[in-house]
Amino acid sequence: MSLDDLYREIILDHYRQPHNFGSLAGATATTHLKNPSCGDEIDLELRVNNGRIEAAAFRGQGCSISQASASMMTDAIRGKTIPEVREILAAFRRLMHGNDPQMDLGDLEALAGVARFPVRIKCALLPWEALEKSLRPADGPAGK
Amino acid sequence: MPKTSEIDVASIRADFPILAQKVHGRPLVYFDNAATTQKPRVVIEALREYYEEYNSNVHRGLHALAEKATERYEAAREVVARFIGAPGPGSIIFVRNTTEAINLVAYTWARKTLRPGDEILLTPMEHHSNLVPWQLAARATGARLRFVDLLPDGQIDWNSFLRLLGPRTRLVAVTHISNVLGTINPIRAMAQVSHQQGAAILVDAAQSVPHLPVNVSELDCDFLAFSGHKMLGPTGIGVLYAKEEILESMEPFLSGGEMIGEVTLESATWRELPWKFEAGTPNIAGAIALARACQYLEDLGRENVWQHGLRLATYALKRLQEVEGVHVYGPGPGTPRGALVSFTMEGIHPHDISTVLDQDGIAIRAGHHCAEPLHRWLGVPATARASFYLYNSEAEVDQLIASLQRAREYFGHVLG
Question: Which residue range is the domain that position B363 belongs to?
Fold first, then answer.
């Protein structure tokens, strides 16, 4: 286990220049989530139209892993239907548990090494927890 | 162990079995002592002896083991009382930890004493455990919280303290040494002016009793709380000290067995101090082992322990400032500080610093250290913290610095 297993070049690229960072015009779902144990936080905004994620953006502060994960996640879910997003979410969770994601996750697979650093898994999952929360019907229009 | 004028780190390390291990193939450098300290063999032995040789409940059995357990448990209370300069064992309540000690005061004394409009004076540098219990007590009683201003280097603004301390102030609750900044607060002076205004003072001593020779009689504080596990003792044992006349006036916190005088179906009377506040079977082994930890610290010399921590913190502060992009928090060089330094590094989040250091066998803490409002005041979401104790050395601080340089290079080649 070395640092390079965790900090893949592509992760640090996303950390340095996060994609989809900022707020979203016409957002239909906004979710704020904070990891109370470490203080990382994220504001995730989605624009959902006809059951499809037209755009996703985030703001927040956190470590390289949580920020890169959010950057890649917002790339990965854009243009996807809600059921497709749920599939990606489940696949990413499998990846974080050290299992085969059972689908092509593209850039996100660079985060596979996080599974070997158990204390950092919650960092990688923070944006995905926010995503899951915003997909819950009770929490916003994104889930409808 | 003979008293020496200086701390002999090599011989001390031999007393701590856990320190001999390697982490990720590198010798463990344990710099997370403000979270919890490691345990010397004598403390681990005290636990083992209790369970293997005289495990028994206290204050009720009439057999030999019960007598021995009771005698050792009460002897531990006397050791702890002497350790902090308390007038007697009646003022020492064994609890689980600092948090429980503060809650005991917040749920009994504060709820009975505070009236709507009364004020509790705090500082922005409090650990959540010396903040949230007062938020709840204020909500329950109609009292309000006030906060003393801090100076830019993280010390209390004395003028602000004097300005906010008024006839409505019933309690000043303050940390002795900040677990993030390392600031040492002037408790004796604060107690003096608080008492002049008729306010009581509670001291969160979780970070001071392990390091500083603390004497509650000299400080003249009304309440003082600390944890055993941050001072070489086991987890699950802590202490509330309070002036006996205040304890006498307080209602019990938890109730049940062990703390009663006489019980009828309808009512009960309470035992005398300190047992009125110790309902149920206490952490007997924990208390006995904590007393052993106190003795270990006294054998080394309390002043030696303090000077050693101060020297390491001063050295770490100086070395950290040599690392490009590092920002340190709290009092600057020349001002005494607790045995810790919190810092951030440009372009590298504290979690990432911690992961890189861990790969080199160095254990630090990263996050808000249960002091979120303080981090808001500092303007950073998180810091990295290296905290020292008597088994740490300047050579280990050098390893920390070398590892931080490596972290900077590692992230720097991408971050530019």
Answer: 9-37+301-409
For residue A144, the model assigns a pLDDT of 43
CA distance B393 to B50: 33
Q: What amino acid occupies position A131?
A: L
Question: What ipTM does the predicted assembly reach?
Answer: 0.86
Look at residues A93, A95, A88 and name the one whose alpha carbon lies nearest to residue A74: A88
- Cα(first)–Cα(last) distance of chain A, in Å? 43
Query: How many other C-beta atoms are found inside a 10 Å radius of the C-beta of residue B11?
Result: 11
Determine which one of B370, B380, B401, B402 is catalytic: B370
Tell whether omega for the bond before B274 is within 30 degrees of 0, i.e. cis: yes
d(CA B20, CA B28): 7
Contact between chains at A3 and B359 (C-beta distance less than 8 A): yes
What CATH code is carried by the domain that includes residue B327? 3.90.1150.10
Report residue B144: phi and psi, to 5°: -125, 155
Total CB pairs under 8 A between chain A and B: 54
Residue of A13, A38, A65 with shortest CB distance to B367: A38
Coil, helix or strand for B147?
Answer: strand
Residues of A in Cβ contact (< 8 Å) with B375: 39
Number of domains in chain B: 2
A62/chain B closest Cα distance in angstroms: 7
Residue B2 included in any domain: no
* Nearest residue of A to residue B372, measured between CA atoms: A39
Which residues, in sequence order, are bridge partners of residue B203? B174, B224
CB contact under 8 A, B367 and A3: no
Residue after which a domain boundary falls, among B238, B267, B299:
B299
| Structural contact between residues B390 and B7, judged by C-beta atoms closer than 8 angstroms | yes
The per-residue pLDDT for A1 is 67
CATH code, domain carrying B180: 3.40.640.10
Interface test with B, best of A6, A7, A11, A38 (most B CBs within 10 A): A38
Residues of chain A in contact with residue B24, where contact means CB-CB under 8 angstroms, are 1
Q: In this structure, are B31 and B54 located in the same domain?
A: no
B416 is a domain residue: no
End position of a domain, from candidates B265, B299, B333:
B299
Separation in Å, CA B307 to CA A57, B109, B134, B303, B404: 51, 36, 33, 6, 25
Answer yes or no: is B253 within a domain: yes
User: How large is the average pLDDT for residues B48-62?
Assistant: 93
Same domain? For B140 and B250 the reply is yes
User: Do B206 and B77 share a structural domain?
Assistant: yes
Write down the residue that tokens 């390893």 correspond to: B399
CA distance B341 to A30: 37
Beta strands B223-227 and B200-204 are: parallel
Same domain, B289 and B306: no
- CA B226 vs. chain centroid, Å, equals 5
Catalytic site includes residue B221: no
The domains located in chain A, with CATH, are 3-136 (3.90.1010.10)
Share of chain B above pLDDT 90, in %: 94
Token pair 């040494």 is found at B177
Question: What's the pLDDT at B410?
Answer: 87
Q: A21-30, B182-191, B407-416: which has the minimum mean pLDDT?
A: B407-416
